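[stage:ingest] chain + small molecule (2'-deoxycytidine-5'-monophosphate)
[stage:ingest] validated
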Amino acid sequence: MKRYQVIAIDGPAGSGKSTIAKLLAQRIGFIYINTGAMYRAVALVHKRKKGNPVKIAKELNIMFKGEKIFLGDEEITDKIYTPLVSKLSSDLSAITGVRKALVQKQKELAFSFPIVMEGRDIGTVVFPDAEAKFFLTASLEERAMRRKLQFSDPRPIEKIKKEIEIRDRQDSTREDSPLKPADNATIIDTTGMDIEEVLTLILRELKNKGII
Ligand code: DC
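[stage:predict] done
[stage:export] tokens:
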């Protein structure tokens, strides 16, 4: 069976991947998949019930319905974006069994529809043969500020910066599937750029490649 087209968007926390991937998918009529939400959902279940994280990942019944994320019948969209779940998702994402279970689910999705998938290892591990790969970055200052505004986080910016820094270090130094650009990814430093500018760059490249 042949899979549909895949556009991979990777990058560190707060690099704008979610916003860009979501809008891009809407514009080109692909389905948007947020793999970070899968790791976060595993962390939420583990925080509540403890238990074996690999088993939790294997049994994860996560569904994306428009902007909303569900675990079975429960809407978890806001519940997975707390500082505690952010840290725990990064911790649990270093476990190979957890990654294997979620990567399997991610791969299967491309057999149902064309996708824009965002995460940390999409271009390197999940779809090394993706039709297009982008790696978004931005300065730590700007990423922390975007997080603060996006989630109306009342905490001091220095605290948010520290959290992002710790999570990025953890995500990029783990043994299994560390955060890094794929060799053939287009790297975009979005510092000082607005959303439309980034989208324009990506759309131009997709046109050049004949994907749209
Ligand atoms: O994209 P995010 O910040 O919502 O992701 C939360 C955590 O999940 C991130 O710190 C590391 C992990 N993650 C991962 O290891 N691989 C992915 N493809 C996506 C997220």
